[in-house]
Amino acid sequence: MISSDDLTLGRRPAGRTLMTADWLLAYHGEGHCLVPHGELVMENGNVIFAGRRFDGEVARKLDFGSALISPGLVDLDALSDIDTYVLVTDNQPGWAKGRIWPRSYVERGPYEMYSPEELAFQKRFSFGLSLLNGVTTAAPIASLYYRQWGETVAEFDAAADAAGDLGLRVFLSPAYRSGGMVLEAPGQILPMFDEGRGLAGLTDAIAFIERQHGRHGGLINGMLAPDRVETCTLDVLRRTMAAARDLDCRVRLHMAQGKLELDTMRQLHGVSGPQWMADHGLLSERLIAPHATYALPADLQHYADNGVSIAHSPLVSARMGSTLNSFAACRKLGINIGMATDTSPPDLLMNLLVGLIACRISEKASDAVLSKDLYDAATLGGAKALGRTDLGRLAPGAKADIAVFRLDDPYMTPTVDPITTLVLGGSGRVTQAVFVDGRLSMLDGKLAGFDIRAARERVQRQFEGLIAKYPDRSWQHPPVSEIFSPSYPILT
Ligand SMILES: [Zn+2]
User: Fold this and answer.
1) Residue 89's pLDDT is what?
2) CATH code of residue 414
3) 306: part of which helix (H) or strand (E)?
4) N or C: fewer beta carbons within 10 Å in the chain?
5) Residue 55 falls within a domain, yes or no?
6) DSSP classification of residue 228
7) What is the end-to-end Cα distance of the chain in Å, rounded?
8) Which residues, by Cβ under 5 Å, contact ligand 1, an ion?
9) How many angstroms does the Cα of residue 436 sit away from the middle of ligand 1?
Protein backbone atom coordinates (compact mmCIF):
# COMPACT_ATOMS: atom_id res chain seq x y z
CA MET A 1 0.00 0.00 0.00
CA ILE A 2 1.15 3.47 -0.69
CA SER A 3 1.01 6.03 2.06
CA SER A 4 0.64 9.69 1.44
CA ASP A 5 -1.33 12.21 3.43
CA ASP A 6 -2.20 14.58 0.63
CA LEU A 7 -3.14 12.17 -2.17
CA THR A 8 -6.85 12.57 -2.82
CA LEU A 9 -9.00 10.97 -5.52
CA GLY A 10 -9.98 13.49 -8.14
CA ARG A 11 -7.16 15.86 -7.22
CA ARG A 12 -3.83 16.69 -8.74
CA PRO A 13 -1.36 16.73 -5.83
CA ALA A 14 0.29 20.13 -5.38
CA GLY A 15 3.96 20.51 -6.19
CA ARG A 16 6.23 17.78 -7.46
CA THR A 17 5.29 14.14 -6.89
CA LEU A 18 7.94 11.46 -7.22
CA MET A 19 6.81 7.89 -7.89
CA THR A 20 8.91 4.79 -7.75
CA ALA A 21 8.33 1.04 -7.98
CA ASP A 22 10.28 -2.11 -8.80
CA TRP A 23 9.92 -1.14 -12.46
CA LEU A 24 9.35 2.03 -14.45
CA LEU A 25 8.60 2.05 -18.17
CA ALA A 26 10.24 5.25 -19.37
CA TYR A 27 10.63 6.58 -22.88
CA HIS A 28 14.16 7.26 -24.05
CA GLY A 29 15.28 8.07 -27.55
CA GLU A 30 13.33 5.86 -29.92
CA GLY A 31 11.14 3.79 -27.62
CA HIS A 32 10.26 2.45 -24.19
CA CYS A 33 12.92 1.17 -21.82
CA LEU A 34 12.62 -0.58 -18.45
CA VAL A 35 14.20 1.14 -15.48
CA PRO A 36 14.63 -1.03 -12.34
CA HIS A 37 13.60 1.05 -9.30
CA GLY A 38 13.27 4.01 -11.62
CA GLU A 39 11.83 7.35 -10.59
CA LEU A 40 9.10 9.37 -12.24
CA VAL A 41 8.43 12.97 -11.25
CA MET A 42 5.34 14.88 -12.28
CA GLU A 43 4.37 18.50 -11.75
CA ASN A 44 1.34 20.48 -12.97
CA GLY A 45 0.02 17.58 -15.01
CA ASN A 46 3.25 16.91 -16.87
CA VAL A 47 6.09 14.45 -16.50
CA ILE A 48 9.27 16.35 -15.70
CA PHE A 49 11.52 13.34 -15.13
CA ALA A 50 11.46 9.62 -15.93
CA GLY A 51 14.69 7.74 -15.34
CA ARG A 52 17.07 6.31 -12.76
CA ARG A 53 17.44 8.98 -10.08
CA PHE A 54 15.94 12.46 -9.65
CA ASP A 55 18.17 14.96 -7.84
CA GLY A 56 15.76 17.85 -7.29
CA GLU A 57 13.36 18.66 -4.46
CA VAL A 58 9.94 16.99 -4.39
CA ALA A 59 6.82 17.55 -2.28
CA ARG A 60 6.17 13.82 -1.79
CA LYS A 61 7.37 10.35 -2.68
CA LEU A 62 5.16 7.38 -3.49
CA ASP A 63 6.69 3.90 -3.51
CA PHE A 64 4.46 1.31 -5.17
CA GLY A 65 6.82 -1.60 -4.48
CA SER A 66 6.27 -4.69 -6.64
CA ALA A 67 4.59 -2.87 -9.50
CA LEU A 68 5.18 -1.37 -12.92
CA ILE A 69 4.75 2.37 -13.39
CA SER A 70 3.58 2.53 -16.99
CA PRO A 71 2.22 5.08 -19.38
CA GLY A 72 -1.59 4.84 -19.20
CA LEU A 73 -3.11 2.73 -21.96
CA VAL A 74 -4.84 4.20 -25.03
CA ASP A 75 -8.14 2.59 -26.08
CA LEU A 76 -9.12 3.62 -29.62
CA ASP A 77 -12.53 1.86 -29.53
CA ALA A 78 -13.39 2.11 -25.86
CA LEU A 79 -16.66 0.34 -25.16
CA SER A 80 -19.04 3.06 -23.98
CA ASP A 81 -22.33 1.26 -23.76
CA ILE A 82 -23.55 -1.87 -22.02
CA ASP A 83 -22.25 -4.40 -24.49
CA THR A 84 -25.08 -5.96 -26.49
CA TYR A 85 -22.81 -8.36 -28.37
CA VAL A 86 -22.79 -10.62 -25.31
CA LEU A 87 -26.42 -11.39 -26.15
CA VAL A 88 -25.60 -12.97 -29.50
CA THR A 89 -22.30 -14.64 -28.60
CA ASP A 90 -24.17 -17.91 -28.16
CA ASN A 91 -27.38 -16.89 -29.93
CA GLN A 92 -26.90 -16.93 -33.68
CA PRO A 93 -27.46 -15.77 -36.35
CA GLY A 94 -27.19 -12.14 -35.30
CA TRP A 95 -29.71 -10.95 -37.91
CA ALA A 96 -32.42 -13.01 -36.17
CA LYS A 97 -31.47 -11.62 -32.76
CA GLY A 98 -31.98 -7.89 -33.14
CA ARG A 99 -28.57 -7.08 -34.72
CA ILE A 100 -30.15 -5.92 -38.00
CA TRP A 101 -33.34 -3.90 -38.22
CA PRO A 102 -36.13 -5.90 -39.91
CA ARG A 103 -38.18 -4.02 -42.51
CA SER A 104 -41.21 -4.10 -40.18
CA TYR A 105 -39.25 -2.22 -37.48
CA VAL A 106 -38.08 0.40 -39.98
CA GLU A 107 -41.69 0.91 -41.07
CA ARG A 108 -43.11 1.27 -37.56
CA GLY A 109 -40.40 3.89 -36.89
CA PRO A 110 -37.20 3.09 -34.94
CA TYR A 111 -37.07 4.66 -31.50
CA GLU A 112 -34.51 5.30 -28.76
CA MET A 113 -34.45 2.25 -26.50
CA TYR A 114 -32.73 4.11 -23.66
CA SER A 115 -33.78 7.38 -22.05
CA PRO A 116 -31.40 10.37 -22.25
CA GLU A 117 -30.46 9.73 -18.60
CA GLU A 118 -29.67 6.08 -19.34
CA LEU A 119 -27.53 7.04 -22.34
CA ALA A 120 -25.57 9.49 -20.20
CA PHE A 121 -25.25 7.05 -17.32
CA GLN A 122 -23.81 4.20 -19.38
CA LYS A 123 -21.03 6.46 -20.66
CA ARG A 124 -20.12 7.51 -17.13
CA PHE A 125 -20.10 3.87 -16.05
CA SER A 126 -17.94 2.85 -19.03
CA PHE A 127 -15.45 5.64 -18.41
CA GLY A 128 -15.14 4.36 -14.86
CA LEU A 129 -14.38 0.87 -16.17
CA SER A 130 -11.71 2.25 -18.50
CA LEU A 131 -9.93 3.82 -15.53
CA LEU A 132 -10.22 0.62 -13.50
CA ASN A 133 -8.40 -1.15 -16.34
CA GLY A 134 -5.48 1.26 -16.63
CA VAL A 135 -6.80 3.19 -19.63
CA THR A 136 -6.06 6.91 -19.47
CA THR A 137 -7.13 7.85 -23.01
CA ALA A 138 -10.38 6.57 -24.48
CA ALA A 139 -12.16 7.10 -27.80
CA PRO A 140 -15.65 5.83 -26.91
CA ILE A 141 -17.62 3.52 -29.19
CA ALA A 142 -21.18 2.26 -28.82
CA SER A 143 -23.65 0.25 -30.86
CA LEU A 144 -26.22 2.05 -32.99
CA TYR A 145 -28.59 -0.93 -33.25
CA TYR A 146 -30.74 0.20 -30.33
CA ARG A 147 -30.72 3.84 -31.37
CA GLN A 148 -33.28 5.81 -33.30
CA TRP A 149 -30.52 6.64 -35.79
CA GLY A 150 -27.21 8.27 -34.70
CA GLU A 151 -25.84 9.37 -31.35
CA THR A 152 -27.02 12.61 -29.79
CA VAL A 153 -25.25 15.82 -28.83
CA ALA A 154 -26.93 15.75 -25.40
CA GLU A 155 -25.43 12.38 -24.44
CA PHE A 156 -22.00 13.52 -25.62
CA ASP A 157 -22.21 16.77 -23.68
CA ALA A 158 -22.98 14.56 -20.67
CA ALA A 159 -20.12 12.23 -21.63
CA ALA A 160 -17.68 15.13 -21.76
CA ASP A 161 -18.76 16.18 -18.27
CA ALA A 162 -18.42 12.58 -17.04
CA ALA A 163 -14.87 12.42 -18.43
CA GLY A 164 -14.08 15.71 -16.74
CA ASP A 165 -15.58 14.59 -13.42
CA LEU A 166 -13.87 11.19 -13.41
CA GLY A 167 -10.58 12.40 -14.90
CA LEU A 168 -10.32 10.45 -18.16
CA ARG A 169 -8.82 11.81 -21.38
CA VAL A 170 -11.30 11.31 -24.22
CA PHE A 171 -11.47 11.79 -28.00
CA LEU A 172 -15.08 11.91 -29.10
CA SER A 173 -18.15 13.34 -30.80
CA PRO A 174 -21.55 11.81 -31.63
CA ALA A 175 -21.44 9.05 -34.27
CA TYR A 176 -23.48 9.68 -37.43
CA ARG A 177 -24.41 7.76 -40.54
CA SER A 178 -26.25 8.31 -43.77
CA GLY A 179 -27.52 4.77 -44.03
CA GLY A 180 -28.25 1.49 -42.37
CA MET A 181 -28.79 -2.17 -43.09
CA VAL A 182 -32.28 -3.61 -43.31
CA LEU A 183 -33.36 -7.23 -43.07
CA GLU A 184 -35.79 -7.83 -45.93
CA ALA A 185 -36.07 -11.61 -45.52
CA PRO A 186 -34.16 -14.24 -43.52
CA GLY A 187 -30.51 -13.70 -44.34
CA GLN A 188 -31.32 -11.06 -46.98
CA ILE A 189 -29.83 -7.76 -45.80
CA LEU A 190 -29.87 -4.62 -47.93
CA PRO A 191 -28.64 -1.09 -47.30
CA MET A 192 -30.99 1.91 -47.14
CA PHE A 193 -29.87 5.53 -47.22
CA ASP A 194 -31.02 8.90 -45.92
CA GLU A 195 -28.15 11.23 -46.75
CA GLY A 196 -29.71 14.26 -45.07
CA ARG A 197 -29.49 12.57 -41.68
CA GLY A 198 -25.81 11.86 -42.19
CA LEU A 199 -25.06 15.45 -43.11
CA ALA A 200 -27.09 16.75 -40.16
CA GLY A 201 -25.15 14.38 -37.87
CA LEU A 202 -21.85 15.68 -39.23
CA THR A 203 -22.96 19.29 -38.67
CA ASP A 204 -23.85 18.44 -35.06
CA ALA A 205 -20.54 16.66 -34.52
CA ILE A 206 -18.56 19.64 -35.86
CA ALA A 207 -20.45 22.01 -33.57
CA PHE A 208 -19.86 19.65 -30.63
CA ILE A 209 -16.11 19.58 -31.27
CA GLU A 210 -15.91 23.37 -31.67
CA ARG A 211 -17.69 23.78 -28.35
CA GLN A 212 -16.07 20.98 -26.32
CA HIS A 213 -12.50 20.59 -27.62
CA GLY A 214 -10.02 21.57 -24.92
CA ARG A 215 -12.50 21.64 -22.05
CA HIS A 216 -11.65 20.21 -18.62
CA GLY A 217 -8.03 21.21 -18.90
CA GLY A 218 -7.61 19.52 -22.26
CA LEU A 219 -9.14 16.18 -21.27
CA ILE A 220 -11.85 16.64 -23.92
CA ASN A 221 -10.67 16.29 -27.51
CA GLY A 222 -12.58 16.19 -30.75
CA MET A 223 -12.67 13.15 -33.02
CA LEU A 224 -15.17 12.67 -35.85
CA ALA A 225 -16.91 9.29 -35.82
CA PRO A 226 -18.83 8.40 -38.98
CA ASP A 227 -20.25 4.97 -38.20
CA ARG A 228 -19.16 2.48 -40.87
CA VAL A 229 -17.92 2.78 -44.42
CA GLU A 230 -20.95 0.95 -45.84
CA THR A 231 -23.46 3.15 -44.02
CA CYS A 232 -21.90 6.43 -45.19
CA THR A 233 -22.34 8.10 -48.55
CA LEU A 234 -19.39 9.55 -50.44
CA ASP A 235 -20.48 13.12 -49.81
CA VAL A 236 -20.67 12.56 -46.04
CA LEU A 237 -17.19 11.06 -45.99
CA ARG A 238 -15.72 13.78 -48.21
CA ARG A 239 -17.13 16.46 -45.94
CA THR A 240 -15.97 14.52 -42.89
CA MET A 241 -12.35 14.43 -44.04
CA ALA A 242 -12.51 18.12 -44.98
CA ALA A 243 -13.93 18.98 -41.55
CA ALA A 244 -11.17 16.96 -39.88
CA ARG A 245 -8.60 19.11 -41.65
CA ASP A 246 -10.36 22.31 -40.57
CA LEU A 247 -10.75 21.12 -36.98
CA ASP A 248 -7.33 19.44 -36.93
CA CYS A 249 -8.81 16.26 -35.49
CA ARG A 250 -8.87 12.52 -36.20
CA VAL A 251 -11.61 10.49 -37.87
CA ARG A 252 -12.56 6.96 -36.85
CA LEU A 253 -14.35 4.88 -39.46
CA HIS A 254 -15.06 1.16 -39.20
CA MET A 255 -13.79 -0.50 -42.38
CA ALA A 256 -12.83 -3.99 -43.56
CA GLN A 257 -14.47 -5.56 -40.52
CA GLY A 258 -16.89 -8.11 -41.95
CA LYS A 259 -18.15 -10.13 -44.87
CA LEU A 260 -21.51 -8.36 -45.04
CA GLU A 261 -19.69 -5.03 -45.30
CA LEU A 262 -17.42 -6.32 -48.10
CA ASP A 263 -20.39 -7.76 -50.01
CA THR A 264 -22.37 -4.54 -49.56
CA MET A 265 -19.47 -2.33 -50.68
CA ARG A 266 -18.94 -4.45 -53.80
CA GLN A 267 -22.63 -4.27 -54.58
CA LEU A 268 -22.81 -0.49 -54.00
CA HIS A 269 -19.42 0.65 -55.30
CA GLY A 270 -17.78 -2.37 -56.93
CA VAL A 271 -14.78 -2.36 -54.57
CA SER A 272 -13.87 -2.84 -50.88
CA GLY A 273 -14.26 -0.02 -48.36
CA PRO A 274 -10.58 0.91 -48.14
CA GLN A 275 -10.23 0.72 -51.94
CA TRP A 276 -13.26 3.01 -52.36
CA MET A 277 -11.79 5.50 -49.87
CA ALA A 278 -8.41 5.33 -51.64
CA ASP A 279 -10.01 5.85 -55.07
CA HIS A 280 -11.52 9.10 -53.79
CA GLY A 281 -8.38 10.32 -52.03
CA LEU A 282 -9.94 10.03 -48.58
CA LEU A 283 -7.25 7.99 -46.82
CA SER A 284 -4.80 9.89 -44.64
CA GLU A 285 -2.97 9.79 -41.33
CA ARG A 286 -6.06 11.39 -39.82
CA LEU A 287 -7.94 8.13 -40.27
CA ILE A 288 -8.26 5.45 -37.58
CA ALA A 289 -9.75 2.27 -39.03
CA PRO A 290 -11.13 -0.51 -36.83
CA HIS A 291 -10.78 -3.57 -37.38
CA ALA A 292 -9.12 -4.53 -40.70
CA THR A 293 -9.87 -8.23 -40.17
CA TYR A 294 -11.36 -8.47 -43.67
CA ALA A 295 -8.80 -6.18 -45.30
CA LEU A 296 -7.53 -7.42 -48.66
CA PRO A 297 -3.78 -7.24 -49.33
CA ALA A 298 -4.36 -4.15 -51.51
CA ASP A 299 -6.37 -2.52 -48.70
CA LEU A 300 -3.51 -2.95 -46.25
CA GLN A 301 -1.08 -1.51 -48.80
CA HIS A 302 -3.35 1.55 -49.06
CA TYR A 303 -3.25 1.90 -45.27
CA ALA A 304 0.54 1.71 -45.33
CA ASP A 305 0.87 4.18 -48.22
CA ASN A 306 -1.46 6.74 -46.65
CA GLY A 307 -0.57 6.50 -42.97
CA VAL A 308 -3.93 5.06 -41.86
CA SER A 309 -3.85 3.60 -38.33
CA ILE A 310 -5.59 0.33 -37.49
CA ALA A 311 -7.56 0.07 -34.24
CA HIS A 312 -7.00 -3.55 -33.28
CA SER A 313 -9.46 -5.26 -30.92
CA PRO A 314 -8.50 -8.93 -31.08
CA LEU A 315 -10.94 -10.12 -28.41
CA VAL A 316 -14.12 -9.08 -30.19
CA SER A 317 -12.76 -10.20 -33.56
CA ALA A 318 -11.61 -13.61 -32.34
CA ARG A 319 -14.94 -14.17 -30.63
CA MET A 320 -16.61 -13.68 -33.99
CA GLY A 321 -14.14 -16.04 -35.66
CA SER A 322 -11.84 -13.54 -37.35
CA THR A 323 -8.50 -11.89 -36.75
CA LEU A 324 -6.18 -9.31 -38.20
CA ASN A 325 -3.95 -11.04 -40.78
CA SER A 326 -1.77 -10.32 -39.12
CA PHE A 327 -0.57 -7.91 -36.46
CA ALA A 328 3.03 -8.74 -37.38
CA ALA A 329 2.45 -8.52 -41.13
CA CYS A 330 0.78 -5.12 -40.81
CA ARG A 331 3.68 -3.82 -38.76
CA LYS A 332 6.11 -5.11 -41.37
CA LEU A 333 4.17 -3.14 -43.96
CA GLY A 334 4.73 -0.06 -41.79
CA ILE A 335 1.12 0.33 -40.67
CA ASN A 336 0.63 1.97 -37.28
CA ILE A 337 -1.53 -0.16 -34.96
CA GLY A 338 -3.28 0.99 -31.82
CA MET A 339 -5.26 -1.27 -29.47
CA ALA A 340 -8.93 -1.20 -28.60
CA THR A 341 -11.46 -3.07 -26.47
CA ASP A 342 -14.72 -2.49 -28.41
CA THR A 343 -16.50 -5.09 -26.32
CA SER A 344 -17.02 -6.42 -22.84
CA PRO A 345 -14.99 -6.90 -20.74
CA PRO A 346 -13.38 -3.56 -21.68
CA ASP A 347 -9.99 -4.87 -20.62
CA LEU A 348 -7.10 -3.73 -22.76
CA LEU A 349 -4.52 -5.99 -21.09
CA MET A 350 -6.75 -8.96 -21.94
CA ASN A 351 -6.74 -7.73 -25.53
CA LEU A 352 -2.95 -7.68 -25.53
CA LEU A 353 -2.90 -11.37 -24.58
CA VAL A 354 -5.54 -12.29 -27.16
CA GLY A 355 -3.67 -10.19 -29.73
CA LEU A 356 -0.46 -12.09 -29.03
CA ILE A 357 -2.25 -15.44 -29.36
CA ALA A 358 -4.20 -14.41 -32.47
CA CYS A 359 -1.08 -13.21 -34.27
CA ARG A 360 0.87 -16.38 -33.47
CA ILE A 361 -2.03 -18.56 -34.68
CA SER A 362 -2.43 -16.44 -37.79
CA GLU A 363 1.30 -16.62 -38.61
CA LYS A 364 1.63 -20.23 -37.41
CA ALA A 365 4.80 -19.16 -35.62
CA SER A 366 5.49 -18.92 -31.90
CA ASP A 367 7.86 -16.00 -32.38
CA ALA A 368 5.72 -13.99 -34.80
CA VAL A 369 5.09 -11.31 -32.22
CA LEU A 370 6.37 -10.43 -28.75
CA SER A 371 4.66 -8.98 -25.67
CA LYS A 372 6.43 -5.65 -26.17
CA ASP A 373 4.98 -5.32 -29.68
CA LEU A 374 1.46 -5.41 -28.25
CA TYR A 375 2.47 -3.11 -25.41
CA ASP A 376 3.88 -0.61 -27.89
CA ALA A 377 0.55 -0.68 -29.75
CA ALA A 378 -1.44 -0.03 -26.55
CA THR A 379 0.70 3.00 -25.71
CA LEU A 380 2.80 4.54 -28.52
CA GLY A 381 0.63 3.16 -31.33
CA GLY A 382 -2.59 4.55 -29.89
CA ALA A 383 -0.98 7.92 -29.23
CA LYS A 384 0.36 8.08 -32.78
CA ALA A 385 -3.08 7.21 -34.17
CA LEU A 386 -4.41 10.22 -32.27
CA GLY A 387 -1.57 12.43 -33.48
CA ARG A 388 -0.20 12.98 -29.97
CA THR A 389 3.46 12.66 -29.06
CA ASP A 390 2.74 13.70 -25.45
CA LEU A 391 0.62 10.59 -24.71
CA GLY A 392 1.47 6.89 -24.41
CA ARG A 393 4.97 7.58 -23.08
CA LEU A 394 6.65 8.71 -19.88
CA ALA A 395 9.29 11.30 -20.67
CA PRO A 396 9.84 14.97 -19.78
CA GLY A 397 7.15 17.05 -21.47
CA ALA A 398 4.65 14.19 -21.78
CA LYS A 399 1.30 14.33 -20.02
CA ALA A 400 1.28 12.72 -16.60
CA ASP A 401 -1.11 9.96 -17.77
CA ILE A 402 0.07 7.00 -15.74
CA ALA A 403 -1.10 3.50 -14.83
CA VAL A 404 0.40 1.52 -11.97
CA PHE A 405 0.06 -2.24 -12.46
CA ARG A 406 0.65 -4.70 -9.60
CA LEU A 407 3.17 -7.42 -10.37
CA ASP A 408 2.62 -9.36 -7.14
CA ASP A 409 -1.02 -10.26 -7.74
CA PRO A 410 -1.38 -14.00 -6.94
CA TYR A 411 -2.90 -14.65 -10.36
CA MET A 412 0.04 -13.14 -12.22
CA THR A 413 2.91 -15.33 -13.26
CA PRO A 414 6.07 -14.56 -11.24
CA THR A 415 7.99 -11.74 -12.85
CA VAL A 416 10.95 -12.32 -15.07
CA ASP A 417 10.11 -9.30 -17.13
CA PRO A 418 7.23 -6.99 -16.15
CA ILE A 419 5.88 -6.54 -19.69
CA THR A 420 5.73 -10.29 -20.35
CA THR A 421 4.11 -10.79 -16.95
CA LEU A 422 1.43 -8.18 -17.65
CA VAL A 423 0.65 -9.35 -21.16
CA LEU A 424 0.52 -13.04 -20.21
CA GLY A 425 -1.51 -12.15 -17.11
CA GLY A 426 -4.18 -10.85 -19.44
CA SER A 427 -6.17 -8.89 -16.88
CA GLY A 428 -6.59 -5.21 -16.13
CA ARG A 429 -7.67 -6.10 -12.59
CA VAL A 430 -4.07 -5.67 -11.51
CA THR A 431 -4.37 -1.91 -12.04
CA GLN A 432 -3.70 -0.26 -8.68
CA ALA A 433 -3.62 3.43 -9.52
CA VAL A 434 -4.29 5.73 -12.45
CA PHE A 435 -3.24 9.34 -12.89
CA VAL A 436 -4.56 11.43 -15.76
CA ASP A 437 -3.10 14.88 -16.36
CA GLY A 438 -1.35 14.43 -13.03
CA ARG A 439 -4.62 13.95 -11.20
CA LEU A 440 -5.41 10.80 -9.22
CA SER A 441 -8.38 9.30 -11.10
CA MET A 442 -8.36 5.77 -9.62
CA LEU A 443 -6.81 4.14 -6.57
CA ASP A 444 -7.41 0.57 -5.37
CA GLY A 445 -10.58 0.23 -7.45
CA LYS A 446 -12.06 3.52 -6.27
CA LEU A 447 -13.02 6.42 -8.52
CA ALA A 448 -13.54 10.10 -7.80
CA GLY A 449 -17.17 10.69 -6.81
CA PHE A 450 -18.50 7.55 -8.48
CA ASP A 451 -19.49 4.30 -6.80
CA ILE A 452 -18.81 1.68 -9.48
CA ARG A 453 -20.50 -1.14 -7.52
CA ALA A 454 -23.75 0.75 -7.11
CA ALA A 455 -23.48 1.72 -10.77
CA ARG A 456 -23.13 -1.94 -11.75
CA GLU A 457 -26.49 -2.71 -10.12
CA ARG A 458 -28.08 0.10 -12.09
CA VAL A 459 -26.44 -1.22 -15.27
CA GLN A 460 -28.15 -4.57 -14.75
CA ARG A 461 -31.61 -2.97 -14.48
CA GLN A 462 -30.94 -0.76 -17.48
CA PHE A 463 -29.80 -3.75 -19.56
CA GLU A 464 -32.88 -5.75 -18.61
CA GLY A 465 -35.03 -2.84 -19.82
CA LEU A 466 -33.22 -2.94 -23.16
CA ILE A 467 -33.59 -6.72 -23.51
CA ALA A 468 -37.36 -6.37 -22.96
CA LYS A 469 -37.49 -4.21 -26.11
CA TYR A 470 -35.59 -6.69 -28.33
CA PRO A 471 -38.78 -8.26 -29.79
CA ASP A 472 -39.56 -4.91 -31.44
CA ARG A 473 -36.50 -5.11 -33.65
CA SER A 474 -36.07 -8.86 -34.08
CA TRP A 475 -37.24 -10.71 -37.19
CA GLN A 476 -40.98 -11.60 -36.84
CA HIS A 477 -40.91 -10.23 -33.28
CA PRO A 478 -40.74 -13.40 -31.15
CA PRO A 479 -40.80 -13.08 -27.34
CA VAL A 480 -37.51 -12.51 -25.53
CA SER A 481 -37.45 -16.14 -24.35
CA GLU A 482 -37.28 -17.30 -27.97
CA ILE A 483 -34.67 -14.74 -29.02
CA PHE A 484 -32.15 -15.55 -26.30
CA SER A 485 -31.87 -19.18 -25.23
CA PRO A 486 -30.19 -20.12 -21.95
CA SER A 487 -26.94 -22.11 -22.14
CA TYR A 488 -28.63 -25.09 -20.46
CA PRO A 489 -32.29 -25.92 -20.05
CA ILE A 490 -33.70 -24.10 -17.06
CA LEU A 491 -35.04 -26.47 -14.41
CA THR A 492 -38.22 -25.19 -12.89
ZN1 LIG B 1 -15.72 -1.96 -33.60
Assistant:
1) 87
2) 2.30.40.10
3) helix 297-306
4) C
5) yes
6) B
7) 48
8) 77, 290, 342
9) 25
